[in-house]
Amino acid sequence: MRIRCPHCGPRDNGEFSYLGDAAPIRPDGMEAPPAAMHDYVYLRDNPAGPHRELWYHGAGCRSWLVVDRDTRTHEITGVSSARDVALSRRTGEVA
Amino acid sequence: MRYSLLSVLGQALRGQRDWKPQWRDATPKTEYDAVIVGGGGHGLATAYYLAKEHGLTNIAVLEKSHVGSGNVGRNTTIVRSNYGLAGNIPFYERSMKLWEGLEQDINYNAMVSQRGVLNLYHSDAQRDAYARRGNAMRMAGIDAELLDREGVRGMVPFIDFHNARFPVKGGLLQRRGGTVRHDAVAWGYARAASDRGVDIVQNCAVTGIRRENGRVVGVETSRGFIRAKKVALSVAGSTSLLASMADLRLPIESHVLQAFVSEGVKPLIDTVMTFGAGHFYVSQSDKGGLVFGGDIDGYNSYAQRGNLATIEDVMEGGMALWPGLGRLRLLRHWGGIMDMSMDGSPIIDRTPVDGLYLNAGWCYGGFKATPAAGFCFAHLIARDKSHEDAAAYRLDRFATGHLIDEKGMGAQPNLH
Amino acid sequence: MTTITLRDTASPSGATPATTTGQGFRTATGGMIDRRRPLDFTFDGRRYSGFQGDTLASALLANGVRLVGRSFKYHRPRGILSAGSEEPNALVELRSGARREPNTRATVAELYEGLEASSQNRWPSLKYDALSVNALAAPVFAAGFYYKTFMWPAALWEKLYEPMIRRAAGLGRAAHAPDPDTYDKVFAFCDVLVIGAGPAGLAAALAAGRSGARVILVDEDHRMGGRLLADQREIAGRSGADWAADALAELESMPEVRILPRTTLFGVYDHGAYGAVERVGDHLAVPPAHAPRQRMWRITARQAILAAGAIERPHVFGGNDRPGVMLAGAVRTYLNRYGVLPGRTIAIFTSGDDGWRTMADVVAAGGQVAAVIDSRASVPAELRRAAEEAGAQVICDGYVTGTKGHLGLEAIEVVDTYGSRQTIACDCLAMANGWNPIVHLDSHLSRRPVWDEAIHAFVPGALPSGMVAVGAAGGAFTLASCLETGGRAGAAAASACGFAGAAPETPKTDPESIAHTPLWRVPVSKGKAFVDFQNDVAASDVELAHREGFRAVELLKRYTTLGMATDQGKTSNLAGLGIMAELTGQPVASVGTTMFRPPFTPVAIGAFAGHHRGKDFRATRHVPSHAWCEEQAAVFVETGLWLRPAYFPKPGESDWLETVNREVNTVRAHVGVCDVTTLGKIDIQGRDALALIERVCANPFGTLPVGKARYAVLLREDGFVLDDGTVARLGESHFVMTASTANAAKVMQHLEFCHQWLWPELDVQMVSVSEQWAQYAVAGPRARDTLCGIVDPGFDLSNEAFPFLACADVTVGGGIPARLFRISFSGELAYELAVPAAYGDAAWRAIMAAGSAYGITAYGSEALSVMRIEKGHAAGAEINGQTTARDIGLGGLLAKKKDYIGRLMKERPALVDPDRPILVGFRPVDRSQRLRAGARFLAIDAAPSLAADEGTMTSVAYSPSLGHWIGLGLIRRGPERHGTRVRAYDPVRDGDIEVEICSPVFVDPKEEKLRV
């Protein structure tokens, strides 16, 4: 499998490590309810099909990446810097 | 027809003409007391024990393909009960005891071969962790031996004791562990369950779980609606997909685990051996092929295939441990889809949906669990109460903190 | 066309080259062997001779050797079926000693001078095999018989039945010694990968190569050309072989084309990744010096053209496994390519026009064709006429129903359309039952092939983008269509990569007919009719599987073992499916196929591992003081990838314990130095650096002033401890965090995750500097004195100026920048000095020199561990991923007023249960007794059981400071039970001793030594 790192170009998946689903959002702050944290830490949709997920280019640029991949075919339709995605999400929250 | 040497000899004279199908290829009825979704080892064992232990026979096993088409026929056939945590120990020992009597019980030779499982250690810390585990096993009445380097050499003299990057210092041995002919487990349970009246329905894919007033009333299938008071999911690899039909999200990810077999050769190794400094374990099948495996590929996958990086990692482990493997040839590699749970341990429990039962999250340890999973799941389905040996496998343990994390890896399935 | 004549072995040998002595089946001329280069070899100890260019199989056939092996189950005599990698029967042990390679297909093993081969799975000899009695019991040994018996008594399985089965099973014997050869890895990238160098592959490579695309052309054979080398064909007025040679010459002239013969493309992986293995030295007795035996290629291709060809199908009839029964295409290969006529009298059994080609070639070579039996009722008249002209008997609408012979074919039994039977003498039978496209590779990405009724075979289904199958591999069987589909695909693939490729004009070829009516099995036949030769699966086994309900293809395969041998069913699968289709009354299309999996043909495990074996299995990381440690004959220990000095034995010390005790005592009384470079070091800078640290650490940091360090505990989000370390504040917005050796990478990844994904708005940058800084712990009452000799004058090291937990940028050795931390793992007055790694060795030596006046010792990881246990510090055995901060006695440190990773989840009921085991100290009641980590705690009078288990001893050490063994462990309600006794139960080491629970801090509990 090859992942097109936005900084390093297409690289063998052996250079990356995988975390999992990028959909769960951490409930930040002292007011966060434990149940929400439980869901964030433990529950996953685990779809057979398109999946937004987090990979870490540990043997490359050390960037966290958001990868859009189909879990049935492994077809990758998008790779972006996780920080950019997270920042734009923050902007969205503010707006 | 009962299987025996006599019946085999008798049929030899009759050109093997009188054998009957080993299980009935049933057409689904419109209604059952319980349906088990998944005709793999666990589902078939569940059906068998429901019939045998609880007298339930108006039940069906629904299999989307054919009997044993999932992980029961894709694993590396190892059985063992060498766990270290109290939540796991009695369960896997129950399984081991059931393995030991399985063939006579179901009248099917699954070639249960107690050739020993040897986990190698390479450091003092690893030795102490194995001692900790072995001591827990011994306290539960399970056999465990801590071998030193010479003890290991006596069993597997051919591994690298001279030039290893991570020298072997000893191993934890469970002599009662070993291997079982995986397909035969599915077939044997299918035959035994079918003989007791269970309907085994093949080519019947579940497409929906119908509920009324929060209670399960049956399943939609590719062969029509089947009414059932109880629906039990036993579909490792696809658990999340089936659970989502009942709007459940689970602490499970599906991952691919690869397995490997070499060309058949004359006997080389007569135990199951795991490398402690890399991802590699190996045994030899009765047919002569070395059966080996390593770590999961590490990403969510519903594709039953893996990639080269993992394959190379496994072979490197093999060569590091056993340099005589070099010229032996890899014959075939394949993948199976694992239910990787968030603490590395399974779930046998009721669900928030009335009448819906769950047997899931087996990670890559489901095969050895087959008899006990069937036994305990049957108990749960029949009595609506967890069997004491599986009492720790609660679905709510992630909320309560009663985790069963043998490796201490935390809520990241690909690290278990 | 060359004329080949069979050398008359009866005539005086004077007229023929001496080198063919004994090669009674070699033609006098012809073939692509080099008759000037004879090669001697042995088979089962007997000497034979062949030629350069032979395979072991062709050389054996040239010498009239037909019996080559014994089958798996019945030990039936077996010969050579094919001429390629699909061979199920002719498996031998090649070479000897540490290079012995079992199950080697004689049909692909290239002959070399001195080649040694032995038959396998026979005892005492190939001709007289004791286990051939199994054949008598064949009626018992039907598919799956072992599932029905060997169950009584249960104990006999491991003792008797299984060993018996295991000894009988398996084929060859593996080498027991380490593989003496090496394996290389190559990573290659190309635009167009062409798999197979037959007519289709060559046409594809030419078209793509001419466009300028980067092309890699692979073929498993040592000579490229595929069937063009095996058949008498014409392309553009030349022989097919000549055309192939010209094509290769042109390809070789193209700079962007790489040609890899002897290279098997074994697997197709995701995203255009392909695995191939090149046999660099297998055609030699031993690989040349400095060359690997094999090379593993990982090829990344934008486009791939599958041109792997097709495999011929055998017929299924009684006795079809007798040596001398061969595939018709193989007969032509041996004849045309190797100059070997595999029989004196050849019969042909065909179900299509293709088989008749064999007759023509044999006749042209001067061979004798006894008969052509065609199972079809209607056969073109010109084919029949040609046979009759050649003196061959022609039987249409007939079958071969059986074979006769002892260890090889002597005659066939034939029935014709009228049911009349006859026996025809022959020593070779050529079977032509159609061809199966090689659909294996295109199935590797989980795509199933589809049935093509027009050619009665499975062809590739929908392929992943960037992949196309051409020629016979794509179901285009005629030579013209091979050239056409290949050329077109080559041009298309090149243009898909941005090269202007034009499909070449397809050259003119001689006409051919591929009409064919498959015959899945001969309806009337006697004896075992084999489907899978190697695994001894007969048609009757397929019937039995059907009878017992194993009708799905996967069940059929697994129950009968059909297709599970080393050839993975290349010649057998379809016959099995065809018979099952007949039995179930379904079309073959509905029966489907089993899944083809990599590798295409078996690949040496060593090739996958490459150089990652022995000491090179994984990289070895050395600490900066490594050279000095080696000079001192330190004993090293593997710690992850690191090789750390464990202890430094001195002359006269009798064992490790004496050495470690001396190191500990010296540190506690004087001073010692330890290389702690292996710790993870993360440099964190930026306006929000502190904010990030606050969120990832569970203890509060808000008050940490510049110039101070603090212990740090990090949790995972699930509330368990991830790691511990220190955070030092070197400047207003500049911090250095340390992590444990084992978790250094994990913590770095975690911090990056927190920053990049959770809190991207934080203005912070971080980098791992673990390798940039050498770091040494200098500990003991004379630590300050020692450091005074290192740190440049002007820096005040006094306790007042630089107290416990102080940190600062300093210079050492006259201006070398360094960092000094007053932190202690040993409980002594201690510092950690970090210098740029390039100065690591010098700084270490300088410390040793500066400390010599104070009696300094170097100490290793063992003494380090003893002292941390004496001080009750948790380490890897306690922070094992299963413990919370509360469990290891750090609950009191945790922040109350901030959100941090793991804050919520650590409060789950089970994790705050007062009954959870908590860290305390242990000492043996009888102080002379030794403690062991891994022991479990039980009440003194409790019978061992899981219910009685109260916890575990996690770390132990002999404390020279106290003069007895001490331990740390987790036990229920530990802190409430100081002074009480329990058993440390350790049955795996026969241990069972009484221990007393105590404070985990064994030495200097008031920390008087720390702050002086």
Could you explain how this protein is built, in words?
The complex is a heterotrimer of chains A (95), B (416) and C (1012). With 95 residues, chain A is α+β, with helices and mostly antiparallel strands. Helices cover 23% and strands 35% of the residues of chain A. Chain A has a single domain, classed as 2-Layer Sandwich (Folate-binding fold). Chain A has helices at residues 34-42, 82-94, and strands spanning 2-5, 9-12, 17-21, 50-56, 64-70, 76-81. Chain B is an alpha/beta fold and 416 residues long. Chain B contains 10 helices and 18 strands. Chain B has helices spanning 5-13, 41-54, 89-106, 124-139, 149-155, 182-195, 239-244, 308-321, 366-383, 397-400, and strands spanning 31-37, 59-62, 78-79, 117-121, 145-148, 170-174, 178-179, 199-201, 206-212, 215-221, 224-233, 252-264, 272-274, 281-284, 289-300, 329-341, 347-350, 356-360. The longest helix of chain B has 18 residues, at 89-106. Chain B is globular, with a radius of gyration of 21 Å. In chain C, the strands form 13 sheets. In chain C, strands 8, 9, 12, 13, 14, 15 and 28 form a 7-stranded mixed beta sheet that branches. Chain C has a 6-stranded mixed beta sheet with strand order 42-43-44-41-35-45. Chain C is an alpha+beta fold. The model of chain C is unreliable at 1-19 (pLDDT under 50). Chain C contains 21 helices and 51 strands. The A-C interface holds A 1-2, 12, 17, 19, 26, 28-30, 32, 34, 37-38, 40-41, 54, 56, 58, 62-64, 74, 76, 81-83, 86-87, 90 and C 269-273, 300, 717-718, 745, 748-749, 752-753, 755-758, 760-761, 898-899, 904-905, 907-908. Strand 16 of chain B pairs antiparallel with strand 31 of chain C.
Question: Could you give a short description of this structure?
Answer:
Chain B is an alpha/beta fold and 416 residues long.
